[in-house]
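Worked example 2:
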Amino acid sequence: MDAKTIYAQSSDIKSRTYLEYRKDMKKKAIAELEILDWLESKLLSLYPKQKIEVSKSGGDAFLWFLRKGGVTREPDYKVRVGNKNFDIEFQYAGKIGLNYFDFAISKITKKNRKTGKREPHQDRKILYILKNNCSFAFFDPEWVLKNGKIGFVDAWRKDAYRIPKIKFLKVLKSDPALKSVIEIIDIKNYILNFQHDLIGINKEKLSYLLQQVIDEQKIVKIIPNDLGSFFKICFILDNLNKAPQNINLWLVYLLSFISGKNTTEDLSKIIYCIDFLYSKTELKQNELKNLVEKIKECFKLLQNFEQKDGSFKSSVNLSPIDETRNALFSINLLEDLTQDLIFYYKVKELSPIIKIYQNLNFIGNTFKLIYIKEGLFE
C-alpha cells in the first residue's frame, strides 16, 4: 500500500460501486480544477510583485480516483511564491445551514512524537470557499487549532476540528469573481449526475440477466462475438464483481468494435466495457499503444457527433437526450481512462485533463438542453 494513501474503511464507501466512487471523487476534482485560475489570481493580489506558481498535486498526472478506492493524503495544490513553497488544502461548501465548520484532524495538525501533543502544520494554508454567497477565506492551520475544538462529526463518522458558525463567518470575504467559477462548477456537477443515470437505466434494462445467472464460471470463460453480447456479459461480471479469463484478449477484441459506423449508444457500451476490463489487468506495450490510439479515435468520433446546440447526433433512431447522455457518459469515462493512463503508464500521446469535461465545446448549451428536457428550465 502506498504510504500516502488512505483506503476507505467505512461501510458507506464500501457499499458504493467503483463508478459511483469515481463520480463522487470527480465532484471534488471539478471544483479543484475550476478554482485553480481564480486561486492564482488571488495569490497574485495577496503577494504583489512576487512570482507565483500554482499547480494541482501531481501536475498533468493528477488523478482524482484510486483503483482500490479511498482518498489520498496529497495536498490539493502546490504553491511557490518567490522562493517559498507551501501547500494549500481546499474545502468547498454549498450552504451555511450547519452550526459548525469542520476540518479533518490530519489536515490541520500532526502529533509530536516526543511530546505526544498535536501541533499545527507549518507547510500549508487552508482555502475555504462558501458557494452560496461567493465568499472565501485563507488561513493557517494554527487558526483552526486556536478557534476550534475536536468533536465527533456524524457525516464523517469520526472526530474533526469544529469551528462554530458565528466565529467562522467572520473570516469569510466576499468576491464577485467567484460567481462565474461557482456557476460552471454547478453546471459540470449537474452534467456529471445526468450522465451517471445511464448506469441505472442500463441496470434496469438488464436486471433480468442477473436473475438468470446460474453458472458464473462458464460466463468468465466465454468470449462474446458481438457488441451487444459483450456489453451484457461485462455488465453481469461487473455487477457480480467478477473478471473474465484472458482479460487482455477480451480487451483487444473489444477495441476492434470501434469504427466510424458507431453511434453514441455503441460508444457508451464499448467504453463502459473498456473501462471495466482495463481496471482489472496490466497492459503490454503493444496493447497499451492500441488502447491509446482507440481512445483518441473515440474522442474524435464524439467530437464529430457534437452539435452547436449542445446535443450530439449519430443516428436518426436515437433521441437527442439519449444521444447526449450516451456521449457525456462516454466522455466521462474517456477522461478517467486518460488520466489513469498518464498516471500509471506515463503515456505522453494523450492530452492531460486540465478541466473536467474539457472535451465539451458547447457546455453551456448542453446544460440548457438537458435542463429543458428534464422540465426544469424554460
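The longest helix spans residues 178-212. The chain has two domains: 5-177, 180-373.
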